[in-house]
Design goal:
It is built from ten helices and 13 strands. The chain has helices at residues 30-34, 40-50, 64-78, 104-111, 128-142, 215-219, 235-251, 268-278, 289-292, 299-309; strands at 10-20, 23-26, 54-57, 88-92, 118-122, 149-155, 174-183, 188-195, 203-204, 226-227, 258-263, 318-325, 329-336.
Length: 338
């Protein structure tokens, strides 16, 4: 007779860290930096609905693994740990250093990690952060070899944008890192992932095995971020509330029990609308796109970092991640702050 896996220990979030691209580019400076004037109507929406007034742009010398290493070092320092304490590193991003090897390899080297520290990459676009938190938690809870895990999400989409595409002005470069560790009481509670692959050919960087790079691919700019079809404008609000409620139900909680919701920071008004649909005060959903721009995979870690740094999180608080990525993939996870 088979038995259920034994829970070795619980997992909790220990600390966070962030890093930013080298150059701050305001909306006023956008034309000078990218060669494109932001139309008045778009700029009004960008600043007043989406919530973005500037972005950070990584230099040609700043690779995703460089940003990841900087955020990781901050998270380790805030946890009073060294890289030698890490048993696992997960890099969650869709803007890697290379197609292969995985970005965890140069990051592992730059951090000076040893052989005992395993690692891998995952890519679920801007939902991969939450999925990586879940995977790290499972590893701590079920694997006696894993006590401390680093999840880090670097994001350098400005390296892949077509500067003449006005919608590219939302993107910003940075990284967010989270250190997870063992706990005597539950920190990670539960999570849920959903997906609809019919959206695979709407929006992305369409090079790889299905479109090998050659002269024509470069000429036609397939190596740049491409918008092939228009996503339904309500796609997030069509799925976020149900995903939130399904995850809450698994945890035996209600929306009122959550102290903070960390939602993909792609549109401030959309996040506020989610809170209204859940019957929750807007203050429960921290927004940081006004400070950092849209940093994709890193954004919810940055929002968590800001909330933690401000002293708002208290022992016993429940927090919920709600994230979405193109393709599409969506994920939610609930943690208790212990």
């Amino acid at each position: 007779m088979s038995s259920k896996p034994e829970i070795k220990k619980y997992a909790r979030i220990v600390s966070t860290g962030i890093s930013l691209g080298k150059t701050l580019v305001t909306n006023d400076d956008y034309e000078k930096f990218f060669g494109l004037k932001l139309p008045d109507a778009w700029r009004n929406a960008l600043e007043n609905r989406i919530g973005i007034k500037h972005r950070y742009v990584s230099s040609s010398e700043q690779s995703p693994s460089d940003l990841a290493a900087e955020a990781a070092r901050m998270a380790l320092e805030r946890a009073n740990l060294s890289v030698d304490d890490l048993d696992l590193i997960i890099v969650a991003t869709d803007t890697p250093d290379f197609q292969t090897p995985p970005t965890v390899s140069p990051l592992h080297f730059k951090l000076g990690a040893k052989l005992k520290t395993g690692g891998f990459d995952i890519n679920a676009a801007c939902a991969d952060n939450t999925i990586a938190l879940m995977q790290a938690s499972y590893s701590i809870m079920l694997n006696e070899d894993v006590n401390y895990a680093l999840v880090v999400s670097p994001y350098t989409m400005t390296k892949f944008i077509d500067p003449q595409d006005v919608t590219a002005s939302v993107f910003s470069d940075g990284a967010g890192a989270v250190v997870l560790g063992p706990s005597e009481e539950p920190g990670f509670i539960t999570g849920k992932i959903i997906a609809d692959g019919s959206y695979y050919d709407y929006w992305g960087i369409y090079i790889g095995g299905a479109r090998p790079v050659d002269e024509n691919v470069l000429k036609e700019k397939w190596h740049k971020l491409r918008y092939l079809k228009r996503y339904p404008p309500d796609i997030n609000l069509r799925h976020w509330p149900g995903l939130v409620q399904d995850t809450l139900k698994k945890a035996g909680l209600t929306a009122n029990d959550i102290s903070y919701y960390f939602v993909t920071q792609v549109n401030r008004e959309m996040i506020y609308q989610l809170m209204r649909l859940l019957g929750q005060p807007l203050e429960k959903a921290p927004t940081i796109m006004d400070k950092y721009g849209y940093t994709g995979s890193a954004c919810v870690f940055m929002a968590l970092h800001d909330t933690l740094a401000s002293g708002k999180l208290k022992k016993g608080d429940y927090i919920q991640f709600v994230t979405s990525g193109v393709g599409f993939v969506m994920a939610s996870a609930i943690f208790r702050w212990v």
